[in-house]
Amino acid sequence: MSDTKTALVISAHSADFVWRAGGAIALHQAKGYEVTVVCLSYGERGESAKLWKQDGMTLDKVKVARREEAENAAAALGVNDIRFFDVGDYPLDLGRETQDRMVDVIREVQPSFMMSHSKWDPYNTDHMNTTQFALECRMIAQAWGHNPGQKVLGAPQLYLFEPHQTEQMEWKPSVFLDITDVWDKKWAAIQCMQGQEHLWNFYKNVAENRANHFRRNSGGQAGGRAAQYAEGFQTIFPTTVDELT
Amino acid sequence: MSDTKTALVISAHSADFVWRAGGAIALHQAKGYEVTVVCLSYGERGESAKLWKQDGMTLDKVKVARREEAENAAAALGVNDIRFFDVGDYPLDLGRETQDRMVDVIREVQPSFMMSHSKWDPYNTDHMNTTQFALECRMIAQAWGHNPGQKVLGAPQLYLFEPHQTEQMEWKPSVFLDITDVWDKKWAAIQCMQGQEHLWNFYKNVAENRANHFRRNSGGQAGGRAAQYAEGFQTIFPTTVDELT
Amino acid sequence: MSDTKTALVISAHSADFVWRAGGAIALHQAKGYEVTVVCLSYGERGESAKLWKQDGMTLDKVKVARREEAENAAAALGVNDIRFFDVGDYPLDLGRETQDRMVDVIREVQPSFMMSHSKWDPYNTDHMNTTQFALECRMIAQAWGHNPGQKVLGAPQLYLFEPHQTEQMEWKPSVFLDITDVWDKKWAAIQCMQGQEHLWNFYKNVAENRANHFRRNSGGQAGGRAAQYAEGFQTIFPTTVDELT
Amino acid sequence: MSDTKTALVISAHSADFVWRAGGAIALHQAKGYEVTVVCLSYGERGESAKLWKQDGMTLDKVKVARREEAENAAAALGVNDIRFFDVGDYPLDLGRETQDRMVDVIREVQPSFMMSHSKWDPYNTDHMNTTQFALECRMIAQAWGHNPGQKVLGAPQLYLFEPHQTEQMEWKPSVFLDITDVWDKKWAAIQCMQGQEHLWNFYKNVAENRANHFRRNSGGQAGGRAAQYAEGFQTIFPTTVDELT
Amino acid sequence: MSDTKTALVISAHSADFVWRAGGAIALHQAKGYEVTVVCLSYGERGESAKLWKQDGMTLDKVKVARREEAENAAAALGVNDIRFFDVGDYPLDLGRETQDRMVDVIREVQPSFMMSHSKWDPYNTDHMNTTQFALECRMIAQAWGHNPGQKVLGAPQLYLFEPHQTEQMEWKPSVFLDITDVWDKKWAAIQCMQGQEHLWNFYKNVAENRANHFRRNSGGQAGGRAAQYAEGFQTIFPTTVDELT
Amino acid sequence: MSDTKTALVISAHSADFVWRAGGAIALHQAKGYEVTVVCLSYGERGESAKLWKQDGMTLDKVKVARREEAENAAAALGVNDIRFFDVGDYPLDLGRETQDRMVDVIREVQPSFMMSHSKWDPYNTDHMNTTQFALECRMIAQAWGHNPGQKVLGAPQLYLFEPHQTEQMEWKPSVFLDITDVWDKKWAAIQCMQGQEHLWNFYKNVAENRANHFRRNSGGQAGGRAAQYAEGFQTIFPTTVDELT
């Protein structure tokens, strides 16, 4: 095992990681992390309305188009390792087989931290089911008796993505990350999402406003970091520290 | 203003800072912080049962005894600056005058972080009223128009102490601090609390068990820091970071 | 009493009503409502940092400047009735006298609905104290024995403003209002806030993104109203209806 | 597709729609809606105690009796379209096949609004599983890639029924509906439930007391609608409006 | 001090104890308890609409009428000790003086258990302020240094009354009390409330439906106590027991 | 059916019942109850790290060792009836077959009360899935139509175990049980858990500190039971009583 730090992002559909964690991904890649992105599905049925409105569209064509968008976005973010589980969407098939595949990836990557969706999402049950699934797989990867001999997982944090309507999803950010330095990469990745152009400006607004929250929480009117773009995440587990700040 | 980092602990009664934050205080003093402790009261009426059972006890005698205990405990923790507001207890007088005094201290100290009690405490309304008061004073200290010309406060975190019955107080820790290196100091400070010997072992148990939580959250069965004593705190405000961990 | 519908907005500081309810105010004025805005304070101490950084600034000068801004903003929104209670800020004086004044206004206005701040705000206790105060005054205005002979208040809804960091304030919107038709007025009112230019873009972003939520909740990808700007509010009381929608 | 408005009620067991939404159903039928009721099961195992106490009872006999009661109740409410999925109860089989059937119904009906159970029910997991199932099916019905060519679903509200012990189910009503005009129909439907006569009076009391809440929230002592019977519902999604009320 | 068990009910207005705890009071009186009822106010301004609609009504006349009703109701329930603090209503004056009076009563009564209102009530802030006040006074009564020499209070449970709209008040019952044997007394007490006849049936319905909950939670369809009338309460503090049941 | 009282403990892994309910089990056995313990799994994969670190370890060897520990612990607690479902762990197989087995046990035992895990556990999804499963099986066991002719279940309380990190699991105790008299048995049972010696002291601390909570809630500084060891549980269902205490 090398000394490279790693992270793992579990995305229900192939575009989620871009809107919700593109900045965090690009930033950590820039810092020398290897970030692995797993897309459980392409969002081929539920998040490709624009494609389906075209004549002669088929499920396979949608998947190909969505995969290409996701690969381009990943490249824009500097990601070297993106994997597509292709388990279907609306709903996802998160049965025992998918679970085993996911645990294998977690064991292989040995992430310093993990990312996934919010705990509750009445608009999109794929999202909340993915979070439950991520917790389940994290637990299995920690088990000494699961594939004995493999290196077991430690206790990585699980960061929850900012969902589309935060308050409805009972999501509350506990950390803001300054992504100003990599905003150009996130913006480029966002623009790879040709099928969802109606969301580009939405997530630009989110990034600008989260930067306002970053400034306010890092000093407020008395100073603080002049972040221009930020992302927010909710942590599931408490942190362990040597010094308070 | 010097480069010394500072912190401010607001304690409803004179012993609270020992049980609930003694480790954090000693640790940060050892790291070069100047930690200021404000005891709003001596807990002279409500938390001095053992003294009141003695013959000829008076309110003043209780205050003197409690103050001495608190000063000894502060010394054991390495604290150089402990202040007693003496606003009465059960209930505290948290009116405009006390508020002004507190804001002055906050402005003077310019803490990197603040500490106080839990948001809710049906057993002890002094505790939850102190937290509300701390938030109110923090807000005033941030106001440019409050005593213009003084240095305004930035946006320090408010860490909430672990209360006596956490679940009843709706308190949930978001950070565990390893206090192993200063445990001897906290234990010495605890032993200064002659009037509450029945609580010594209780808070030793808490520190041991929070260390277990520290270990579990820093790596679990796969490793993690071998902390022997820890304290937990709940944060009110989100953090602002450059890198996730 | 005329047939004109009325509404009452209770704003802790003189700018709050603009950012948080400017669209609702302009829209209802345009629909023929008379909206009364009460500013409990000018935000003279806590929300006028830019003014205080000027040489020779005094409390009175700040108040005059802030009042002028608020009056201009109100005019831009079409408001005919804005009142300044001038009870100080950071903290507000919400004692019995202020309460009596507020109840008189509620009785006079007889609002169809009321608006105020979120229930919880650890950054700004003025905000949450104002909400508690609004509920208290609403209750008194309903009392047949309070100034007998006056017309008592019915049961108007209390809409809670969108706060600056919604998730930290435990605020969850239950209604989105399409303010596209009056956005120009809200934008003009926002621009009256010369002292807080750093927030202009923030609240434009909010309005755009809430419009996205409006669209999603009014039909989603299958249709829905093409709102361009919207505001969100949380209701305190359940509604009473003749038909579900 | 006609201009008739439609609604869809998803009932875990065959009697639930009567107690919990009978008034809403009758009222909307009277207003010209076509309300479709889907009973996932007959409640044959778990909610037919009285029948099972009879000699010679079998599962099929229970189903027949329960179906007849439900059909009679539906007729009393003016319902023209009631469907029985017969997927078993205690527990319900809510697997992929049931899901597909439900999505087909949703697509066919294209409801203006949907109704189902509370989010949490420790007494009856069939109820809360049905709600999760309803959200999942609603999401699939919105997917452009699910059975492409069919008309996709918009964004109908999901109203949650009043459960038997509201506070234990973490249910909070956000809307009260005046059902006075159709109370005779609901009462007739309730009386079709021969096997659960012990609940008749219970739900009559509920309707009377919810009417009290209707009156209080529509004006209180200062006026308000003189509703005699009402039903309460909790909404999952925020509303989108043109005017506040 | 005698061996008689005691209880203390703190009622914001003079009728609250009847609707919300009349059964518990009568039942415990019948079991040999001495129950003390403190009415902080007569509800003279806020809960006497019917009286205020009469010609020539004055505050004093309302108080006299309300006091008589409350005394009659208390007598019907078998109460020997009802006290009127007369601190005004809408809002209550719960300042230091009222606090001292209340603590004196608590110390005198030494209740086995206490009762008061719900923690939250947006319709009626007097109610929730009373609960906060009750917790504060309970804490002071426990302080050895408050009036040293008096017998200090133990740790009595605080039971929260069922409020008028439970779900809006965030109230959840943790205990149901069978009041069938004393229902005739509660009904008689209710009928003493001549000014609020519109609520008689409402609280009869509540008592019947809570009895249904009593039956369900004591055995359900498999048996259980055949209670006909019950009251529900929420406990604030955990219980300490020798055996689970 | 005899007159012996019974209880049923559902433990996800074979050691859970010892740490979390060992005192309650020993105490009720001592009081004449027959307590049945069902271990769904041996915790063979996820909770046997120490064993897996030994050379030549296999899944079967782990199961044998864990079973022996659990049987010894059960014997130390006086339990006569412990059953191992052996459905695998990390994750548990809680499908229809396991459900049927569990319902059979519930019907056979007819417990006065049941025990299981907390409602939420992000560290260990086996735990929270077990609780959901316990509620589901309890419901089925209450159904008259499930295996007609068998005695149906009444409405036993479900007590939730204290989890490892209470606050993270959203667990709040509503009852403390004095286990001083059987502490020696619990301690002996704990010492049977050779593979988890690192937790012995942790749960001793928990028992000591919960005894402090027992004392405080049973009288506080004014008296109270001098419990030395206690366990805490959260109840799911409200209680039904004849007298408040």
From TrEMBL, chains A, B, C, D, E, F:
It comes from the Bacteria. GO terms for molecular function: hydrolase activity, acting on carbon-nitrogen (but not peptide) bonds, in linear amides. InterPro entries: GlcNAc_PI_deacetylase-related (IPR003737), LmbE-like_dom_sf (IPR024078). SUPFAM superfamilies: LmbE-like (SSF102588). PANTHER family: BLR3841 PROTEIN, N-ACETYLGLUCOSAMINYL-PHOSPHATIDYLINOSITOL DE-N-ACETYLASE-RELATED. This is 4-oxalomesaconate hydratase. It comes from Shimia abyssi.
